[in-house]
Amino acid sequence: MDTLTNLGLGFQAALSFENLLFCLFGVSLGTFVGVLPGIGALATISMCLPLTFYLAPMPAMIMLAGIFYGAQYGSSTASILLNLPGSAPAAITCLDGYPMAQQGRAGVALFLTTIASFVGGSFSIILMIGFAPILASFAISFSSADYFSIMILALVAASTLSNGSFIKGIAMVGVGLLLGMVGTDISSGVARYTFGTVEISDGISLIALAMGLFGVSEILSNLMHGEHAVVDARAITFKSLIPTRQDMREFWPAAGRGSVIGAIVGMLPGTGPTIATFMSYSAEKRLSKNPEKFGKGAIEGISSPEAANNSSVQAAFIPTLTLGIPGDAIMAVMLGGMLIHGITPGPQLIVDNPVLFWGVIASFWLGNIFLLILNIPLIGVWVRLLTVPYHVLYPAMLFFICIGVYSVNNSTFDVLLTLMFGVIGFGMMRFNFPAAPLLLGFVLGPLLEENFRRALVLSHGDLGVFVSRPVSLVFLVLTLIILLASVPQIRGGLTRLIRGRDAINE
Amino acid sequence: MLNFKNETTRSGVSCLRRAVLGAAAVAALAVGTMGGTFAAAAQDYPTKPVRIIVPFGPGGLADISMRLAGEQLTQILGQQFVVENHPGAGGVAAANQLLKSDPDGHTLVVMSNGTTIAMSLFNDLGYDPQTQFAPISTLAWFDLGLFASPSGDYATIGDFIAKAKAEPGQLNIGTVNPGSTQNLAAEYFRSATDIKVNIVAYRTSPDILAALIRGEIDLVVESPTAFAAAIKNDQAKMLAVTGAVRNPSHPDVPTTSEAGVEGYEVSGWNALYTLAGTPDDVIAKLNKAITEVAAMPEIQAKFAELGTTAKALSPEEMATQFENDRAHWAKIIESAGIEKR
């Protein structure tokens, strides 16, 4: 009951005119930067941080948070329409979203990703309202050994990300792991594979890699193929946005699973939404009865990652607000924003300043409703993007990609790197090497190594730590099951086992 | 946030260094005599906006303190002082920005005590701050804190040392990345107290806090600023501060010397440097303005809130401070047996 009273207090505060206004401003700005490829929430929030010095703490927090989760709504738009992800987590939405657009179902895809975002966001907000302190303590209890085992599971699951050759998929994971090793090693401080270059001594920029492999390569490939047929604007009717009954039957379970995966990954400090979206996509493909339809416009292939994306960014607030432990750079900047206002996020915040704590949480949900209202009418506008001739659209997109990549580190080298990865990505496309496993390998590699080595330092070199910790053991067993299930004979046996059990149940 | 990392910069302490230092003295003389010719120019300085290159991302301690000071410098000197963030490569990216500029005092770079560590840590830093750069002044000074879990076994630093001696090799100290001031301060602590403990590296200070909460590590070396929220939330307890004197924000916490670790002291600073060859009177003008800023009650108060102390030095004192710190850390790095990279 206490929670409900507090939540009421929160809504009361969040519903004030000023707070609503900043919430609307934040989510609108977020949607906008989310749609633009490359320019992400981190750069935008950093730029807006000085503005918040002049605001009261609550509207400041509400606005910054709005930019963050608003950007996730927009990030899949360009993935679906143009095969250009707005951010790294949305790269996975290209796999099935773009084929849907090519089949003339862009409106449906945008509609469903918006709903999926709302479902995912709402799921984590409800978790936060009900169980934030418990979940935060749970998330914090994950040690290096546990992280390692989760990353191993994610990596093995990733082998299903591509449709083509299994060997090529695994090879690309390997390339991703190698690229992830570039830069200063966290355990020893030694610079690896930098060839003396200063620019990559902190590693290759994730944005540069994602924008190059997914964005620039797509533009290059379109240049090669000449002008595409331009969609007739009159063909886009409101009716074409409405999903079929079958679509919705596939949508709900996928969005639900995505929300759960996103929430779990999101609340663990240091993981981030890219891992959440990629994991949920591989989970869908694993669980699907017809995995062959993935990559050709599967509803589950867009719904689950989108739900996971929004669920994970909302869940990221759980350790930040309740323990004062930010999980990533964006959360760290937000935490800094609060500290500047003399607010200390952590267990004391809920006691000392319940109105602020619950007000901010209430604003998340109001913001998600704003985003829903904002994004559904926008679908018609976005779909009209397809009517813009490519010779106008692509230079503009390239321009935004360059600006976006530059804005992360103020580095012109990163822009060149993006273009280089664009050329590499183009070559990969031509020879059917999938880019998604590479990106996941790149994200997971450094985390995998860092946690493996730290776990061993802490256990004084005893490898047993990976099986003696229950959480770690569970994930390793899951990994083993996935591996075994890939062996055809064993898979047949498992299927028989499940069928048999169903028969008994009936 | 305020996860200030005392970034290390790569260092090129070549065997030529001493020879080069001599050459620098000659160069300084030459610049001194040339100063007269540029006197008219220096009177006008600054003639255009001045860039302050910060080697860290936005939002950190160095960034915020430089932005605060930049506002005041703009008032005093009549031109915009603009902070530009060039994070990366432990400060080398920022240093390169300065190396690309003209020696006219319109580009400044933030150097930290982390650079003095880097000079002994790296085989090739890519630049030599002692000869290629000219010191202007320090701006912010800070200490580090030694933290333990409030519910843990250690009420004092003495308790920790006693346990570490009783169980050699069993206890863990957590710090941010190897080569940071925090990490080297932990190495220094290990050798100064002659204990056998593991030093475990984490990516960020929130990661360290999480590790402390779940009991993975026994002691943390981190700045009181980065752990301010953790202290307030009773997630971490500061056993000692590493400065020569107590931290004014935490008057109850003893210094490491007071707590029984004789002579153990670590102080960090952020300072402004510009390119060597900049006219002396331009540097003098900048130094005067910074000294004025550091003495402002408003700046003093805001810096204290951030957990640092505003204090300026003369360019000569700055050069001495840098060289003393470099020699100090070189000795620690050598005695800890840390390999050069």
Name the descriptors:
heterodimer, A: 506 residues, mainly alpha, B: 341 residues, D-Maltodextrin-Binding Protein, domain 2, six-stranded mixed sheet, five-stranded mixed sheet, 13 helices, 43% helix, 17% strand, disordered N terminus
What does this structure look like?
The complex is a heterodimer of chains A (506) and B (341). Chain A is an all-alpha fold. Chain A has one domain (2-229, 236-505). Chain A is built from 23 helices and 2 strands. In chain A, strands 1-2 form a two-stranded antiparallel sheet. In chain A, β1 and β2 form a beta hairpin. In chain A, α7 (106-140) packs parallel to α11 (245-267). The longest helix of chain A is centred in the first third of the chain and has 35 residues, at 106-140. The radius of gyration of chain A is 22 Å and the shape is globular. The model of chain A has no long low-confidence stretch (mean pLDDT 86). Chain B has 341 residues and is α/β, with parallel strands linked by helices. Chain B folds into 2 domains: 50-142 and 268-335, D-Maltodextrin-Binding Protein, domain 2; 145-241, Periplasmic binding protein-like II (D-Maltodextrin-Binding Protein, domain 2, 3-Layer(aba) Sandwich). Chain B has 13 helices and 11 strands. Chain B has helices at residues 17-35, 39-44, 61-77, 92-99, 113-121, 129-132, 157-166, 181-193, 205-213, 228-232, 280-295, 297-306, 315-335; strands spanning 50-54, 81-85, 107-112, 133-143, 145-148, 172-175, 198-201, 219-222, 237-241, 267-275, 309-310. Chain B has a 6-stranded mixed sheet, with helices on both faces. In chain B, α8 links the parallel β6 and β7. In chain B, α3 packs across α11 (280-295) and α5 crosses α13 (315-335). The longest helix of chain B is centred in the C-terminal third of the chain and has 21 residues, at 315-335. Chains A and B meet through α3, α15 and α20 of A and α4, β7, α9 and α10 of B.
